[in-house]
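I had to read the description of the data format several times before I understood it. Each protein is reduced to its one-letter sequence and a matching series of backbone shape codes. The format is easy to grasp once an entry is in front of the reader. For illustration, here is how one protein appears when written out as sequence plus structure tokens:
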Amino acid sequence: MTKIKAVVSILLIMSLLFGFAACGKDKKGTDETTTAADTTAEETTAAIEDTTAATDETTPTGETQAPTEATTAGTGETQAPTQGQTQPPANSKFPIGTDKAAIVNFYNTAANAVKAYKGPLKVTRKSGAWTSIEKFDVPLIGGQVRKIAEEKLPNDWATAQPKTLSFNNGVAKDGDKDRTLQYFMPPEDKPFVSQLTADGIKSAECKQEGANAKVTIILVEESSNNLDFIPPHHSKCADTLALSSADLDPFTIKDATVTYKGAKIVAVINEAGQLLKLTIEEPAYITGKVGYGSLTFPAALNGGYNVDISIQW
């Protein structure tokens, strides 16, 4: 019995020794694993820091690199780069941002060069008048008299057809007639297209459209109590009213006031200073007392004269 106890005691002691040995081995393995993991983490952190440093050296903080190629927006779709000009740079030959005098002078030079040109030139022109009766208070027979007046008034702008003539040395064939540039370009039969000055201008603007300049000029308002009134500024750039008693028959007008409400000129001029397009809208307003037989009644008319021209050099 004593021997058995001794043997059991020895076995217990041996098992405890093996247990301690195993525990020591496991702890050592754990320490090695932990050390390896720490080493790997340190190496990864260092690699990230190296990459960040390399990126910082390539692109300074706060700066964004512009795309050098088109950006792909989806499968088969490509977007153009957002950078780049959408139209040519401003042309220093155009009086953009200058005063009325400079813009008017720029327009005058280009416009007058057309009538002075002796080479081949193709000009397309549409022109006509428009009128509407605003007031026509005729007692008793107003409807009949109004109809007569409407038939007398010029109103051909809406139905006017453009005409194209080819000029050489300032002359073109128009059927069996010879037409000159001085006649075909406004004002008719004048040696100039425009002699405008800054004092006759309400506003003037020049802006670039593509490679060309677009000039827009608004004239000042001019009025008179004379039906034969020739407005000093409008007559320098456009055809004006030319009414006679024969044009008005069977009507007469007394105490008339004629007002040119400020013509609008729009011109397109290329960088060579050549006029390409010209539009003139010249509104007028007439008030007065109209006589018809023994009747006299107040009347008011709106009207105007329009010209639309394109030129091929």
User: Anything to note?
Assistant: DSSP finds five helices and 13 strands in the chain. The first strand starts at residue 71 and ends at 74. Confidence is low (pLDDT under 50) at residues 1-82.
